[in-house]
Amino acid sequence: MTGFPWAAFAVNLAVAAGAAFAVMLITFAVARAKGVHRLVDIAWGAAFTAVALTTCALSAGYGDDGRRILVTAATAVWGLRLSVHIARRGRGHGEDPRYARMLAKAPGSRDAYALRTVYLLQGALVWLISLPVQVAQYAAVPLGASAVAGGLLWATGCVLESVGDFQLARFKADPANRGRVMDRGLWGWSRHPNYFGDFLVWWGLFLPACGTLQSAAVAVVSPLVMSYLLICGSGKRLLENHLADRPGYAAYTARTSGFLPLPPRRRPHPEDHRP
């Protein structure tokens, strides 16, 4: 990567890792005191914001200022919105059933197990997934078409994620919907519009890091890992397994796209099956 400040970037990688793990360790201390490890979900977006701000400070004098400000602002807006949303969603609730089940099987100390398998793992993932945020801020190439395209993808993803989260929260807040499947608004077009929005956000943040083939090769790890997590890992797959036995969910999956928003499939009419 001609002209890329590798030595400064290597230092940034180490300091960014420290920032990510610092957020997770502080969250672990608070969660342990409160006895509720679901707080780690709030720390996810905040940790990305910490990495972006740390990189912005360290990259001064190396990368293009417009690119540094754009990537830092985009990451912070996405991360802080997500943290606030998750904090509001979990207010007044006890432990998340996912963490309760996980910790019930913990060998030895539950807190030590949670630290290893939840907090430190998520800190490592934040560092890895934030690679384009770090790479882009050290690229001296002026903003161009790839950054514009990335901004459009990021904005589209943020809107889809925010609207999807809002619609689901409003649906769940109505006692009349208890036990029912959310199939309205964006959720009528995709079973996971918020995850699809997240998918677009990270491919959008990847594009400003594509100043050269080498920088793109380093940064592409991030959206690939995030895409895997959202579709095959702890996102879509895990949630659908949890909802599989809910009344009406099978019919919902039959008519609604699993990820990419698409018009709902037509419900079969009895006359369609006449001999």
From TrEMBL:
The chain crosses the membrane at residues 6-30, 42-63, 113-133, 200-231. It comes from Streptomyces decoyicus. Pfam families: DUF1295 (PF06966). InterPro entries: UstE-like (IPR010721). This is DUF1295 domain-containing protein. The lineage of its organism: Bacteria, Bacillati, Actinomycetota, Actinomycetes, Kitasatosporales. Keywords: Membrane, Transmembrane, Transmembrane helix.
